[in-house]
Amino acid sequence: MKVTAVVDASKTGTPISPHIYGQFLENLGDIINGSLWAEMLDDRKFFYPVDSSETLTPVNTRKMNRRRPVGPDEAVVMVAADAYSGEHSPLIRLDGASPRGIRQAGLALRKGKGYTGRVVLAGDPLVRVRVSLIWRPGEGGSQTLEVGPVDGKFAKYPLAFTSGGDTDDGSLEITATGTGTFRVGAASLMPSDNIQGMRPDALQLLNWIRFRVRNGTPVPPAGPFPS
Question: Are 186 and 119 in contact (CB under 8 A)?
Fold first, then answer.
């Protein structure tokens, strides 16, 4: 089909403000992940399988905190049928005794700081799911939320934690007890002071280096560099 456009140069619209301009940001390295975006979890929709292997296929050059099984490797299987996102979602088989599920370590947590997020779950009726934020091993080193009840369809459940300690190797565990199986579709965790999903400290720096032009001359950032 041939498309024809006609431009009438005699008609003009409202002038465009010189303060409106475009920018481009490409997701290379850690420019977004771990820098501007406040998300703390890697591979939160499970592109990679959840297991104890040391290799990633396909290879990922980014440093990633892998999701690992809680319990034996064979208790977690990646299922393509009715996947929440992408090609597969993890399904965890319970044995009616010890908790089983998945965990991600390597989280930087600070005492007294709030963390919010959500988890997407589905499962059998007799499954009891808990999500724990862990800042140190042992008694008093974690906060646990009971979420659900879950059913056969994926649903979102909100999370809200306050860290009781400082660590650069905290973890988030999604586990369950009972009988049957449950699935995890996705998970997210951010500091509760995020601004629409962005890190406030990164936004402060972007605001400080804002590019402005006055009478054709660039105006440098105002004030001292934010501490």
Answer: yes
Which pair of structure tokens corresponds to residue 126? 């007799």
Report which secondary-structure segment, H or E, holds 200: helix 200-208
Task: Name which residue leads in pLDDT, 155 or 1.
Answer: 155
Domain of residue 136 covers 39-193
Q: 113 in a domain, yes or no?
A: yes
Confidence label for 123 from pLDDT (cuts 50, 70 and 90):
very high
Q: How many domains is the chain built from?
A: 1
Q: Is residue 171, in this structure, part of any structural domain at all?
A: yes
Rounded CA-CA distance 136/131 in Å is 15
Determine the pLDDT at residue 171. 98
The verdict on pTM exceeding 0.70 is yes
Secondary structure E strands in 71-152: 76-79, 89-93, 100-109, 114-123, 127-134, 142-147
Structure-model confidence comparison of residues 175 and 97, the more confident one:
175
Buried b (16+ CB within 10 A) or exposed e, 34-68: eebbbbbbbbbbbebbbbeeeeeeeeeeeeebbbb
Say which CATH number the domain at 122 has.
2.60.120.260
